[in-house]
Design goal:
Number of strands: 8
Order of helices and strands: HEHHEHHEHEHEHHEEHEHH
Number of domains: 1
CATH architecture: Alpha-Beta Barrel
InterPro entries: Aldolase_TIM (IPR013785), OMPdecase_type-2 (IPR011995), OMPdeCOase_dom (IPR001754), RibuloseP-bd_barrel (IPR011060)
Pathway: Pyrimidine metabolism; UMP biosynthesis via de novo pathway; UMP from orotate: step 2/2
CATH superfamily: Aldolase class I
Strand order of the largest sheet: 1-2-3-4-5-6-7-8
Catalytic activity: orotidine 5'-phosphate + H(+) = UMP + CO2
Radius of gyration: 18 Å
Structural class: alpha/beta
Largest sheet: 8 strands, parallel, barrel
Protein name: Orotidine-5'-phosphate decarboxylase
CATH class: Alpha Beta
Strand content: 5-15%
Shape: globular
Domain Orotidine 5'-phosphate decarboxylase: 16-261
């Protein structure tokens, strides 16, 4: 099955919430864990037990594993492999983007068949030019994986680049969406190339032709409510995946509490969607 088809099935079964797995130092401490590879492994085990089979997608943030060096990356590799045995899809947030043989190297690491850090999908940065992502896009397609390309992020530092306009008046962010839409043309039930659009501000993008998923960071602790997300993405044809990390993770370290927090937030999203109709 294509990534788009697997994602559509996962969302239909478990709802749209994407649970972030962000083991930053303060959270490890708050869970009573040590800020080292051992604490990281315990954190990962709790997230696996809490989220596997109960949410459609999890999004490990690679940086918080990488900061522990080779031992942390080994924990990430084990976590991705463990989730691969469950119905929950993995979206590795590494925001890779480069050119030529270096992009080939990232594709080998994350996206090709048998990739050692292979997840169901990977975030990519297109700001060396969307076409520079071609090795990653090809590798993902061949392996049945997906990608999510940064388009319009919520951080204020992104606006000068992402909202800059070309000769035709189209913003850089919109050009990223349009390039993703071109890759998704004809995909059913949706294409495999998603975009990342922050949920904490009005995005101003035309997503109607994307035919792919939209990853929406910012739900919960970052300030976007379920009603905000629904209002800002109403009418988007593909799967919309709101991301919550801290709001869910602060319920840990008990896996049952993590599962309950994710379920409660998912129910709020469902209620907000129903209330918008």
């Amino acid at each position: 099955m294509t990534f788009g088809a697997r994602l559509s099935d996962a969302v239909a079964a478990a709802g749209p919430l994407c649970a972030g797995i962000d083991p930053h130092p303060a959270l490890l401490t708050g869970w009573g864990l040590t800020d080292d590879a051992d604490g990281l492994a315990r954190f990962a085990d709790a997230c696996l037990a809490g989220f596997a089979g109960s949410v459609a997608v999890v999004k490990p943030q690679s940086a918080f594993f990488e900061r522990h060096g080779a031992a942390g990356i080994a924990v990430l590799e084990r976590l991705l492999a463990a989730f691969a045995q469950t119905p929950t899809l993995t979206l590795l947030d590494a925001k890779r983007g480069d050119i030529g043989s270096t992009m080939d190297g990232y594709a080998d690491a994350y996206l090709r068949v048998g990739a050692p850090l292979g997840a169901d999908a990977l975030t990519l940065s297109p700001y060396l030019g969307f076409d520079s992502l071609e090795p990653a896009l090809q590798a993902a397609a061949e392996a049945g994986r997906g990608v999510f390309v940064l388009a319009r992020t919520s951080n204020p530092e992104g606006a000068p680049v992402q909202l800059a306009t070309g000769a035709g008046g189209r913003s850089v962010a919109q050009s990223v969406v349009d390039a993703a839409a071109a890759r998704n043309a004809g995909g059913s039930p949706c294409g495999d190339v998603g975009v990342v659009v922050g949920g904490t501000t009005e995005h101003g993008l035309d997503l109607s032709a994307l035919n792919g998923p939209v990853l929406v960071p910012g739900l919960g602790a970052q300030g976007a409510s379920p009603a905000d997300v629904v209002a800002r993405f109403t009418g988007t044809p593909g799967p919309v995946l709101p991301v919550a990390a801290r709001q869910v993770l602060r319920a840990g370290p008990d896996p049952d509490a993590l599962r309950a927090a994710a379920r409660a937030l998912g129910e709020q999203l469902t209620a907000a969607h129903a209330g918008s109709h």
